[in-house]
Amino acid sequence: MQSAAFTLSSPSCPSLPLLKPRSSRPLINPRFDPISIRASSSSSLKRQDLDTPHNNVVFPRRSWSLSSASSSPSLLRPWNPLVSDRETERFQVKATAVPESAGESEKSSSMIKTLELGLLFGLWYLFNIYFNIYNKQVLKVFPNPVTITLAQFAVGTVLVTLMWTFNLYKRPKITLAQLAAILPLAFVHTLGNLFTNMSLGKVAVSFTHTIKAMEPFFSVILSAMFLGEMPTIWVVGSLVPIMGGVALASATEASFNWAGFWSAMASNLTNQSRNVLSKKVMVKKEDSIDNITLFSIITIMSFFLLTPVALIMEGVKFTPAYLQSAGLNVKEVYIRSLLAALCFHAYQQVSYMILQRVSPVTHSVGNCVKRVVVIVSSVLFFRTPVSPINSLGTGIALAGVFLYSRVKRIKPKPKTA
């Protein structure tokens, strides 16, 4: 029977004598003619006949792979289905291999994105720590918060202009309608940073950031008033430890004064007003711009808004002659002011970059951790006296902020009719 299979695959054979005789009965032994078994559409072979062990000696696909090299087209036609099956199997093997390589590339890209996000969070915290340290050092010897805030916006304006000039970031095309919509955001952004500097100049850095932990309270109130977003019972419950912790820390704060306290509270109000306005104003997709571009435009507008205010309220006091007359080291004040301004712009820029990569809830959790890091680092650097009760109040307030950021994702159940 093996000689018959060899005769079929030989290209020199003019005819196929073994295929001519046809029996009226179906072939019982599949070894006799495997081709007719494959080719016949009306075969009556039973399943157990095909599964018998003696069928293992027949390799029809091997014989057709040999005959595929033949030059006779007539020998290729009947077995095209076999070749197609083989090609289909090859295609299926390749198709199963592609997702594996794609999965590996997805894993590597996901790991790279995670590392980038971790680096951004680290820079966010680092820039914020150095901003608070340098800013506090300058405000101690130069208690003019409006001028200091103006200098920080001026440095940010220069950085934004350089980025747009050298195409480090795409220069936006802004219409007058967009500028009119952004103007209220720039106004409250200016006030928020000004009030923060006023508080930092009056009280300890740790106490300012403890009061600023009250931001969720203002966010809930303003969102309910202007956006109609009613808080869940879980959100309201998370505000209790925040308010209690801030009250406990304020009652035991060694550097407490009302000017620093109300300045920090005003900073909370204006910063959360900016967030609410950004949700209310930037609603049209065709008019929307990305967060970094929005921050850049707000920085420039804040500089122009604050310039006349600084000249009226504090005059021109940042000159070398004035600093020398006040007995200050001009070079040291300028360097620390510049470093504070660079860190100020950098940490806000990185914050917006993180916000583009993560959800607002994740960003809120990161902001809570950032506040803890800033408070601890400022206490260690400035050796701020902290009582156990004060530490307890700060810890309770920060725990409430963390709880708030977690329960924000709980959506209220829809009311059934």
What report would you give on this structure?
InterPro entries: EmrE-like, Sugar_P_trans_dom, Tpt_PEP_transl, TPT_transporter. One of its GO terms (cellular component) is Golgi apparatus. It is a multi-pass membrane protein. The chain is mainly alpha-helical. The chain has one domain (about 115-410). The chain contains 17 helices and no strands.
Short description:
With 417 residues, the protein is mostly helical.
Task: Label this structure with key terms.
single chain; 417 residues; mainly alpha; 73% helix; disordered N terminus; membrane; phosphoenolpyruvate:phosphate antiporter activity; transmembrane helix; Tpt_PEP_transl; transmembrane
